[in-house]
Write a structure and sequence with these properties.
Oligomer: single chain
Number of strands: 2
Order of helices and strands: HHHHEEHHHHHHH
Radius of gyration: 18 Å
Number of domains: 1
Strand content: under 5%
Shape: globular
Largest sheet: 2 strands, antiparallel
Strand order of the largest sheet: 1-2
Length: 256
Amino acid sequence: MEVLIISIVAFLAALLTFFSGFGLGTILTPVMLIFFPPEIAISLTGIVHFCNNIFKLSIIGSQFNKEVLIKFGIPAVIFAFAGSYALFFISNDTLFTHHLFVKKTDVSYLQFIIAIILIFFALIDLTPFFKKLKFNKSILPIGGILSGFFGGLTGNQGALRSAFLIKMNLEKSVFIATTVVISFFVDLTRISVYISKIKDFEISNFLILGLAAIVSAIAGSFIGFKSLKKITLNFIRNLVAIMILLIAFLLLLGIL
């Protein structure tokens, strides 16, 4: 049953997130956690994410914007390391606690700050007055630094990355390709860690599920690619904004 459920979620998540440039891991991880311990769930999700990115690179990666990749991607990868390292030194104290669910849930200062940043960017894209606003390429390194650093801290690098890049007014296929290439390099920095963490587990026990999830995610991305001509840039902008708001509210609730 878990193979079927995870495969369906992987397919739908990959289809949806093909256009937004982020969200596959965010959607798939909670479902994996239902069936597996955290280290296995996170590792399996990371491997599915990585394989799906390789496939997306093969079908659309060549259309990436070189200037954006260099000015945004390099700082993002460097500061992802910095953010991951800083996680051990930055206080993650609880800001407030709620009982909206069965158990008590704590929301940290860090979750709250990231959520507010994400909401700010989402509202920029959803507010008609700001829709005409576009970022100058000179701020690309700043965007890379912020998305990389906070991504290293919280694991939500993709949302901030897309929030910045969608304001560059890139052609839709260029936007998607550029986010895929940057995401691929970010994945490379963490996939070795996942492999080292799961070396003590019997990989063959998860082979069928892993392959099913990978194939399902690739199928979702393929259908997304085939639908690209029918999708407008405005649709992608709105999708990015809505998904960013969703992640922001999940952070505010302490779910992510």
